[in-house]
Amino acid sequence: MPEAAATAVGFNWAEIIGQFGLYGILAWYLYYNTSIAIPNLMKNHEENHKRLTEANNATIREVVGAFDQRMQKFDDSKQRELENYRNSLKCQAFAPVKKPEA
Question: How far, in Å, CA of 51 to CA of 72, rounded?
Fold first, then answer.
């Protein structure tokens, strides 16, 4: 009766081990891991890695774009400041020289 219950519910592991032996079960386990389980894990890992890399690259592009805009504004203001300084130096260089009063 216990054998009938074991085969009706699922596998009768004692019978399977008796037919194939422990080495047969080990061979199946190794085959399953190397042919099915590990490749599926690697595929899932690669997909997750690709998705995270794309999200990271998008974030980096956004941050670099914002940084470039801020640097452009900074460069523009520094350029205007330098231009004003140059103009003031030119004005001072060509300004009429006042003679000291004696």
Answer: 32
